[in-house]
Amino acid sequence: MNESKDFLRLKVDEDLKSGKYKEVITRFPPEPNGFPHIGHAKSICINFGIARDYNGHCNLRMDDTNPTKEDTKYVEALKDAVEWLGFDYGENCCFTSDYFPKLYDYAVQLIKMGKAYVDSLNEDDMREFRGTVKEAGKRSIYAQRSVEENLELFEKMKNGEFKDGEHVLRAKIDMSAANMKMRDPLLYRIRHAHHFRAGDDWCIYPMYDFAHCLSDYIEGVSHSICTLEFENNRAIYDWVLNELNLQLPRPYQYEFARLGINYTVMSKRKLLELVEGDYVHGWDDPRLPTIAGYKRRGYTPESILNFCDQIGIAKANSMVDVSQLEFCIRDDLNKKVPRVMCVLDPVKVSIENYDGSEKIEASYYPHDVPKEGNRKLPFSREIYIERDDFNENPPKGYFRLTPEQPVRLKHAYILTCKEVIKDDNGNVIEIKAEYHPDSKSGSDTSGIKVKSAIQWVDAKKAKQIEVRLYDRLYKNESPEGLEDLNPNSLHVNKNALIEPAVIEEKPDERFQFERQGYFYADPIDYTNEKPVFNKIVGLKDSWGKKATSNKPTPKQVAKKVQIDGEIAPMSEEQEALFAKYTKNLGLNNEIANILARDEQLSSFYEEALLVISSPISLANIVTNEVGRELKKESELKFNAKQIAELVKMIDDATISSKIAKQVFEEMITSGENPEVIVEAKGLVQISDPAQIEPIIDEVIKNNPENIAKFKAGNTKLLGFFVGQVLKSTGGKANPAVVNKLVAGRLKDV
RNA sequence: UGGGGAUUCGCCAAGCGGUAAGGCACCACGUUUUGGUCGUGGCAUUCAUAGGUUCGAAUCCUAUAUCCCCAUCCA
Fold it and tell me: Nearest CA to A501 among A354, A382, A333, A338?
């Protein structure tokens, strides 16, 4: 488990600590218009996971505000996915459609406040009026309608007196907002459509931006977690909740990066296209990244959960490598499932010196899996082995059967090849061999050394099965469309042979077919007469990789050349200021440049300069620290004079620049004078070596390992020791002095 | 002539001014009746780039580059 917390949990910690919320309530809010995929699983893990970690709860909420796309079959798939992953939403399966009456009332309230209006522009005009990303939009003439008129119109909309598209309800915000989402967003539209749950009760339906925030509020959600593409919508989320003056606490929205996995697609549109176009066999096709697909393929919930845990949560768009997912399922199944023998591409072996038959007792589990269970393997004169496990002209490093090299039949005897029989085309159709009677597994006295043990099945007792072998659905790492589909993503093998116990005893539903991979008895198509197995994932195969891979082409890392963009020229006044700062005051170019280009900064600087004539240190602190505060919305609590005083204390070495930062932080929040802060906190700098030396001794004593590393040549550790000393003085030690002393001491140890 | 995000190893991802965590992948060795598992070791003198502040910068400041999102009566 990750020790470090993700940014969402950090936020929850903070909110709980500050008392903003008493309980953590989250929600998983899918729209029931498609089957959930592994991206949804990530969201489920985040929302239900956080609720679980903080003893809160998580609602499963169907965001069903668009009657034309949604359906109850998707609701079932969604519920099933959540349950399969092991989460319990209890009574809390909610529907936005249940809130339609409340939502309507909120809309009326907004109209009454003059914050929403009925617009009657047609769709094209509305787009036109919205402007573009770079140009402001303009408001519809209908925005001038009176509250009464709006109320009346809205009610008529609800009563079905208008046709689809005739009117909409819009929020009155700002048609020139830089955030396009805030240009009077739509709140309600008319849809004379049957809703799968609300029936025909409504002919107006709320939009996402209006319904979502209020649904969260109605449910008492504290942390409303969604994906990155909703970042711009957060402004409306906040606007609606603020304008309505709701009773606190209210929810806040946070965004994380959605999951991307290479060689697959995750968009609902593309998934739907694959299913409806019959490029795959339904939503639960094992090649699909849907939950239903993984479930049918044989993935375990544990493996998906573990995968979601491993990939983490962050805000950077990312593409996770499928090998990470494959690792998770192998890792899970490795410790759980029985090993059995199956031959996918059989070639007959006649053991010429063997007569009769026997049953060999064999464990289902290897020595490193602590589980119990055995079966009997029938063995006789005729068996089948894997075609790949014999080679007449073996490459270097081939461990299996060759005319010269014997091999062990797993759990049974060592076999030596005597003769190879081929058809007219040169294909091997049979191998004649001899076994070594004294080489039986467990009582081998033959002394023969073999390089590997291969799987086999008895020719008479083996059962024929169908095996469905899946490869990645797309041939491209970042597939765009149908043209990127892998034509060989499914291979059906109807002639595989498996040892009888698997079919007769059914010890499990998932197996490792020894040396091949993990397989799952298909939950739908499997019958006793015609057993069907799905390949979940192959075993890691370092031999196959080595044998296939072409020579490692040394990837030349073309060093990226960074193209520098153009820098905006300075105005004449800025030039003059820049010249003055560099020539008269002796500032460096960077600082002078920043100051000269920022009117607000330079005037702050000039004002402070009147109090103390220490142009350089003043300029440094103004550009690097004050600038940051100036950019914030809130007003400054400190003034130029106080900054000048702070600089004065640095200049006369009362405090170090490290302490100055601490003092500055305090000034930001309290607006107190620097002297007062220094006095109150006793932040005066310690420069006396006699006081510092004992602390250094202490630090050296407490970090013997790092001293050793330092002696071994890790000179970076100097900084570490300086840091430790500074830390134990609460930052008060004079860093320059500490540095010198520590450097001196470390030389001697 | 916009706004909002992001950038740390091949892929994820910690890090919040004081030693660049961890996982996947990869490489090597050891164990092995699965070319699996397991074990051990190796994988970032450097955090998109360039400057600046600091005793000390992935972390603070400035500029630049690149990628993603926003102009559905979808969510």
Answer: A338
- The residue out of A227, A242, A261 marking a domain boundary is A261
Supply the CATH number for residue A75's domain: 3.40.50.620
In this structure, the answer to whether residues A583 and A665 fall within a common structural domain is yes
Query: CA–C1' span, A344 to B32, in Å?
Result: 24
The number of domains in chain A is: 4
A675 and A707 part of one domain = no
Mean of the per-residue pLDDT values for chain A?
Answer: 95
A580-609 residues near strand B (Cβ < 7 Å): 588-591, 593-594
pLDDT surpassing 80 at residue A715: no
ω into A704 cis (within 30 of 0): no
Neighbour-count burial of A490, counting CB atoms closer than 10 A to its CB (0-12 exposed, 13-18 middle, 19+ buried)? middle
Listed as ranges, the nucleotides of chain B within 7 A of a protein C-beta are 1-8, 10-27, 32-38, 45-46, 48-49, 51-56, 60-75
pLDDT band at A549; cut points 50, 70, 90? low
Between strands A57-62 and A93-95, the pairing is parallel
Query: Would residue A566 show up in a list of annotated catalytic residues for this protein?
Result: no
Answer yes or no: is A430 within a domain: no
The answer to whether residue A258 is catalytic is yes
Decide: CB of A563 under 7 A of nucleic strand B.
yes
Residue A591 has pLDDT above 90, yes or no: yes
Q: Are A641 and A700 in a shared domain?
A: no
pLDDT of residue A706: 84
CATH number at residue A718: 1.10.10.410
User: Which nt sits closest to A593, CA to C1'?
Assistant: B62
Domain that includes residue A120, residue range: 114-206
Q: Is pLDDT above 50 for A86? A: yes
Give the residue with minimal CA–C1' separation from B8: A316
Interatomic separation, CA of residue A664 and C1' of nucleotide B16, rounded (Å) = 18
pLDDT greater than 60 at residue A553:
no
The string of DSSP codes covering A73-140 is: HHHHHHHHHHHHTT---TT-EEEGGGGHHHHHHHHHHHHHTTSEEEE---HHHHHHHH--SSS-----
Question: Between the CA of A563 and the C1' of B71, what is the distance in angstroms?
Answer: 30
Single residue among A681, A699, A728 that ends a domain in this structure: A681
Q: Is the CB of A480 under 7 A from strand B?
A: no
CB-strand contact A743/B, under 7 Å: no
Interface predicted TM-score (ipTM) of this complex, two decimals? 0.97
In a domain, A49, yes or no: yes
Whether the Cβ atoms of residue A719 and residue A746 lie closer than 8 Å to each other: no
Same domain, A64 and A21: yes
In this structure, are A587 and A675 located in the same domain? yes
A267 touches strand B (CB under 7 A): no
Q: What is the CATH number of the domain that holds A124?
A: 3.90.800.10
Longest dimension (CA), chain A: 109
A724 touches strand B (CB under 7 A): yes
